[in-house]
Design goal:
The protein is α/β, with parallel strands linked by helices and 431 residues long. Helix content is 30%, strand content 23%. A hairpin with a 2-residue loop joins strand 10 and strand 11. The mean pLDDT is 95. The structure holds flavin-adenine dinucleotide. The site of flavin-adenine dinucleotide has 40 residues, from helix 1, helix 2, strand 13, strand 19 and helix 14.
């Protein structure tokens, strides 16, 4: 079952023209819309289904710099500032808590990896620090296991995915953005070698700039334009408990579980060492690009070949403006949670923190994640496509950076000074 998002009163009518058209009503597209509306730039968000119904409401809610790629950390640092003012900016409590994040280490190799990461980000002034075994036990009491140590960042935290992006949407609308649901963008219109509009299922809308924030659909959208964006889906399985007493309000990542306190008093839990990987035709097309990452992480994937392969195969890869696109055929990607992974998450967590023995599972859900070969997002312009800005491929960690990623996308689309250096995110890195 999909988590229930707080409602957003969106617009029924589609305008004939705007300045910036945004494809995708997830946290990135909506944050870009809020930024632009605050700057007085006319903006319309097109969402093929309901806003915030895919990744942005199904994630764990972690907002972290810990263990983030040093190239992506500057965006996360900027995001922290935006989260801190989010309640005031949106007029809604989005559940943001700077309660700290702890990554546990159960082997010497993990302690060494944590030390290596600290060394790599030492110039960024992040408050992360290594904890000894005793310090871990003091910080999060009640574990039945003895940990080698941990990596702790007090300034990290979390927010509630079912509250945050919808609050951003409501604030954007209040400030003048137009948000239209059930309106897929099929393709782009061009004129004089430049993007001149979006072709939607309700007709063409003229615009000067387009931001593509389509999550895991961006690869298909760009493929139809002969632009290759390497991105493959994996499915996370998540559960929430009923309200309960727990060991800590710090978000804790163990080797094969993670948990964090929710605003409703429960915990959000996952088996962090395992994701479902339904094999798709795209695995054959671009799988080789993932070999370097897979060498380190293949144990974390549970591949399967089944219905998903054939339903993806059946989706059109090329379509013309007037034809129904794959985006209208799947309004919301709603994968099932994998019951085996839900069970493993609980078993592993109870083995580590017996306090969870009494936890009552209130809900489970699945979420499909768009992963690029280097797990970094793709942001910026596309060669030979003037007027198109990409903001996609957040690879399982784009909720935390979402507000900053949206702002950066708005900057890049309109030629404003970029929030951070976008160079690491350039699509040309894939060749
Ligand atoms: C199980 C799980 C756990 C995660 N945990 C974390 C975490 O703890 N911390 C963290 O930082 N991140 C986490 N993430 C990742 C995070 O959720 C995503 O990186 C982030 O939400 C991406 O936002 P987005 O706006 O790019 O994409 P999405 O939220 O997927 O939004 C894209 C939207 O675009 C729409 N769309 C696509 N194509 C079209 C089209 N042609 N026309 C109109 N609309 C279109 C889609 O319908 C969708 O609503 C997790 C993800 C999952 C699934």
């Amino acid at each position: 079952m999909a988590p229930i998002v707080t409602p957003v009163q969106t617009h029924a009518d589609v305008p004939q023209k705007t300045t910036v058209a945004i494809i995708g009503g997830g946290i990135v597209g909506l944050s870009a819309a809020l930024t632009l509306a605050e700057r007085g730039v006319p903006v319309v968000v097109f969402e093929k289904g309901r806003v915030v119904a895919e990744q942005s409401s199904r994630n764990l809610g972690w907002i972290r710099k810990t263990n983030r790629s040093p190239q992506d950390a500057p965006l996360a640092i900027e995001a922290d500032k935006l989260w801190a003012e989010m309640a005031q900016r949106t007029g809604s409590n989005v559940g943001y808590q700077q309660n700290g994040i702890l990554f546990l280490a159960d082997t010497e190799e993990l302690v060494a990896a944590n030390r290596k990461w600290l060394e790599a980000v030492k110039d960024l002034n992040i408050d992360s620090r290594l904890l000894s075994s005793d310090e871990v036990a003091r910080l999060v009491p009640g574990s039945s296991r003895s940990w080698q140590g941990g990596l702790y960042t007090a300034s990290d935290g979390y927010a509630e995915p079912t509250l945050a992006a919808s609050a951003i949407a409501r604030a954007a609308i209040e400030k003048g953005a137009i948000v239209v649901e059930n309106c897929a963008v099929r393709t782009l219109a061009t004129s004089g070698g430049k993007v001149s509009g979006v072709v939607t299922e309700r007709g063409e809308i003229a615009c000067e700039h387009v931001i593509l924030a389509g999550g895991l659909w961006s690869r298909k959208f760009l493929g139809n334009l002969n632009i290759s964006l390497p991105s493959l889906p994996i499915i996370g399985s998540v559960l929430r408990t009923a309200p309960m007493e727990g060991p800590t309000d710090i978000a804790v990542a163990g080797p094969d579980f993670s948990f964090r306190k929710r605003k409703d008093g429960g915990y959000t839990i996952t088996q962090r060492a395992a994701m479902s990987a339904p094999l798709m035709p795209d695995h054959a097309r671009i799988g080789l690009k993932y070999v370097p990452t897979l060498r380190a992480n293949w144990r974390n994937l549970r591949p399967s070949l089944g219905r998903d392969f054939f339903s993806d195969y059946a989706l059109t890869r090329k379509w013309k403006d007037g034809r129904i696109s794959p985006f209208e055929r799947t309004r919301t990607m709603d994968p099932m949670a994998n019951p085996a992974l839900i069970q493993e998450a609980m078993d592993n967590l109870i083995a580590a923190w017996p306090a969870f023995k009494t936890a009552e599972i209130a809900e489970t859900w699945g979420g499909a994640i768009d992963v690029t070969p280097d797990s970094l997002p793709v942001m910026g312009s596309v060669p030979n496509w003037e007027g198109l800005t990409l903001a996609t491929g957040y690879s399982g960690h784009g909720f935390g950076t979402g507000p900053a990623a949206g702002q950066l996308a708005a900057d890049l689309a309109t030629g404003a000074v970029p929030l951070v250096d976008p160079a690491p995110y350039d699509i040309r890195r894939f060749g």
